[in-house]
Fold each of these.
Amino acid sequence: MTLIRYTYPVARSLTSFARSPWAGLENEMDRLFQSSLGDFTGSAPTRRVPVDLYEDKDNTYVRAELPGINRADINIELVDGYLNLHAARKTKVGEREDTVALARSVSVPDAAVQADKISATYENGVLTVTLPKREETKPRKVTVTVK
Amino acid sequence: MSLISSLVPSLNRTPTSKAGSQPASDLGPILKPRHELNETADGFALTVYLPGVSHSGLELQADAETLTVIGRRTWKQPEAWTTLYRESDDATYELVLSHENVVDLDKIQAELRDGVLRVALAKTEAVKPRKITVT
């Protein structure tokens, strides 16, 4: 009779692991943790941006507090009746650069704004967006000549 | 180890320092600004978010015990503007940090840009770590 030394498994063989009935569950668990924790570790946190709304007879004004942002990193869009403000605050910490993303949407009645004439200024960390009101459509008088 | 601790200004002030500094009633409503404090190798880096505050509205005071930041908003709502909705505050920013005398008052550097105040506070020589050679 010959004795054969038992070899302790050091690493799990990939082939046997794939065949295991639990393989699917383990993969699923890994995926779950990655997707749920990804938001905390991966992307920069998005914080709330305080917004004020004002109006006068010609314009509507949106003022948003966005301290410490380069003008190039501010994005303003008017999409489907919403004014979307996106900003990225970049801070240099030693050699690496930290980025904080800030976003805010404000509902703006699409029909009341001249979308092509929107302007914005940024001063002392406050963004002011000026939305010119559309001129009231004047009643038109049409004369039809009867032949 | 955090040597500078931020405390509620009214609780932190001793009666004597209260008499010396500006009374809170002069400032009107007060808001504590969002801020970050990080310790660096030779000091502390303080970042205070003061949206709406320009150079003229900013006051930075340092004495033996505390560092005080006061930020007044310079923007005034034009008369023709009607308020539709507000989320921000008109209150003056005030931040008082006690530094327990570990900061070199002569070496404070501050910069205000786009509503963010960055203050570099250098540690005094006495609290800097010193290497001692053992013979």
Amino acid sequence: MPHNDSQNITESDPAKLPNRFQPLTFSGTAGDYFKIHFVNLFLSIITIGLYVPWARVRHRRFFYSNTRILGDGIDYLARGIDLLKGWLIAMAVLISYNILPMIDNEYAVFQLGYTGALILLAPWAINKSLQFNARNLVWRDVRFKWDGTYFGVAIYLFLGPLIGLLSFGLLLPIFSRLMRHYIAKHYSFGTTRFTIETSLADFYKAALAAVGVFIGVVMVVAIPVALYLFFTGNGEQGLTSVFAHSQGTIITLIFGGQLLFIGLIMAVTTYYRAVTRNLMVTGLALGDDIRFRSDISAVRLVVITLQNAVLSILSLSLLWPWAQVRKYRYMVDNTWVRPNGDLDHFIDQQQANSSALGDALSEAGGIEISI
Amino acid sequence: MRIDGIFIAAQGSRRQPATLFIDRSGQQDACLQLVLGDDAPPITVQISAVSPPIAGADMRITLGGQGVFILRDDHLPRALTPFLPPSRWYSAGVWLAVVERLNWRYMAIVLALIIAMAAGIRVALPMLATQIAAALPDRWLVAAGDTSLAQLDNLLLEPSQLPVAKQREITGQFNAILAQLPPDKRRIRLHFRQSADIGPNAFALPGRHIIVLDELVEFIGADSDALTAVLAHEAGHVIERHSARMITEATLIAVVAALIFGADESLIEEMGSMGASLMLAEQSRGFELEADRVSADVLTKMGKDPRHLATFFNRVEQACGAACDGAGFFASHPSFATRRQQILDGTQR
């Protein structure tokens, strides 16, 4: 199906593009993604997970290719087979990590070492993943590029946020700004670099709002739930008593409390991320003259996120594809680019693929960085 | 035949409208020609790669060495098929795209198959867990149980305050229970502890440990047969390897979930862990009934009334009111009514 909405921009002479902000558009539909998602799930189950790398590629291609910047989609060139090897290694790591301690107590110590090794490995995996994915993202036949380093990722993406949290959030805005700057500065489009300018005061304003929500939430809901969990001792694994010492209804309540807690944490983090994303994208420039803008409403995004979560749970995840498309579309629709003249001068000099192992490992660790 | 699109020359972002022509004028095979803009001279091109179609997205056709031709459609026109390079991946991709665009009636079948497979896994996992747990060497379970006991002693449990004479009496009772078990299952040890946090209860650890709390002994008082029934129930947990089965099943669920979903969205993970809790809680309730049956068996073999456990449940219920019987989907134990019913059904047979 041709996409008429983008036709008038893209088919006209690019040199005549007006010098003003144009919204990104999303050409996928929830119905399309629903089918892709469930075919992915079906093939993943029937192949006992072997299909997962291909499923990931289909998933990413659907979202990237349908994200249109000035009418042209972003191509994702990685193939399932590229991801498979890394995926197998990541799975071996994950499974041995889960199973070894069950076999013998001595492996409990081993698992500790394992955890340490994985922590040291994580920045490497993230760095490689960013590199791999950037190289496989192409817009108008020019590849993106990530040139971060192990230590850069370790410091700005891991240590910084950790210190931010340990300082009870007091330093978090400084570190989240540093992190966003680090990410932006190490991406380039072809041979042209991204630059970024933001003000620290804006990050503190964002954090203040989010912290306000957070404190309110913790006072009202989290502390009672946490105390209750602590005193009822949820950790009775491997312990089989003659009758339950906490009653069914209360256990159900605890689960409800946990869900509520997750929802509230989700709300606070979504809020903060939305505001700082706006700051980052709006401060971003490509080369000298191409500017971006993001004007997501943090409150609206929180509402969408929570509605999505509730609907997904109530529908036993049946509506999840719809929810995902809805949220993604909202973010794309509120992201803008000001091309300032034609975009014909970008040059790409990169070689093709790099290793996908880092990508699979960071995926398996559940860490994904996206802008 | 003409196909309109956009051409982007290799390694640069310069884009221009272009047209692919399929030229059949020659005597030999048809050839593919690219015309840039409206009036540039045609260039003969070859397709070196095509990204498999995906719903909503443009087709990206790589013209070997020259650049990329972008087609504003999510299907490849059939006319181009003869010009495609032979690629099994591409054919698989096309097949996939067809499946992904089946109409809703067929998608309903896919959904039904997913649900059926999920149900299959749901049934198979506990069975598999039981098989694996049965194959685990005793040594491992004992090691796991010893560690748990040490941890519980550190965190939750206090030394028992029961008089030594009372402890001896209960140990004697316990040995009488062990005598009713198969000879290879008699290595279970009874420990006395105290814990105000947990309250009147007794529990089993993997391997060989049963712990009875002072609070339970006090609660039961003079009714020594009730204590026998409870201890036999715990012995049931140990000999049926319930802890090992539980832990194995939890691990299997984690591994299968990781295999199938990867570590996907955190929401799916949360839902997965809720689902896993439901499965494990259901399994746990099954184990309780199994242990109750062992208790009834042991009591019968000892020449006692197998209904002592049921009587004991009545007392617990009276002591803490109806709230104690709050069975539910997440509960680790079945309701007292269910458990009493099973014991009574057993005695009538």
